[in-house]
Amino acid sequence: MKTYIIIASVLITIATIVTTSCTSNNQRNKTELVKISKTDTSKLHTVEYPQSEKAKENPTTIDLKTLKEGETINVEFAIKNVGKKNLLIRNVVTGCGCTEVTYERKPIKPGDTSIAKLKFDSKGQWGTQLKTIEIISTDYEIILLKLKAEVN
Predict the structure, then answer these.
(1) Which site among 12, 105, 114, 128 is 20 to 30 Å from 80 CA-CA?
(2) Are the beta carbons of 78 and 36 closer than 8 angstroms?
(3) Do the domain assignments include residue 61?
(4) Mind listing the pLDDT tens digit for each residue in 68-85?
């Protein structure tokens, strides 16, 4: 009986730490759909669809360098369709309420590029932050993108 109480206490503690590790104001994995203007994509981080095996093993990383705790950073990145059919993004999963991605919800034709916006809120974050963003297409292929920041 004591063992079950100890195990339950440990699980509740872990669940509390996990659910409060990012300040999300009950907006976990918030993804907004917005119209985004055309931008010169040559200077942006770019993820490609379909993603090569090499890119899956070593995804594009957006390094935000050093931030002060509480600082919010907005950055754009490009999604380029290098495939032979239209790409339609089904969903974007950020895994943490401190990271949001907005993107245009219309097909990206082969050879075309679409701009997405990423917002990282460092409120309540400390130390090295490594976030994974999964961009899920309508054929359920996942495009990986990483976000890195050092929060002081």
Answers:
(1) 128
(2) no
(3) yes
(4) 999 999 999 999 999 999
How many whole angstroms separate alpha carbon 101 and alpha carbon 32? Answer: 7
**pLDDT per residue over 83-102, tens digit each?**
999 999 999 999 889 999 99
Domain limits at 104? 23-151
Report the CATH number at residue 96: 2.60.40.10
Closest C-alpha among 118, 37, 117, 113 to residue 80: 113
Cα–Cα distance list, 27 to 36, 69, 71, 103 (Å): 22, 20, 18, 17
DSSP, res 18: H
The answer to whether the beta carbons of residues 99 and 120 sit under 8 Å apart is yes
* SS3 label, residue 60: strand
Flag whether 105 is in a domain. Answer: yes
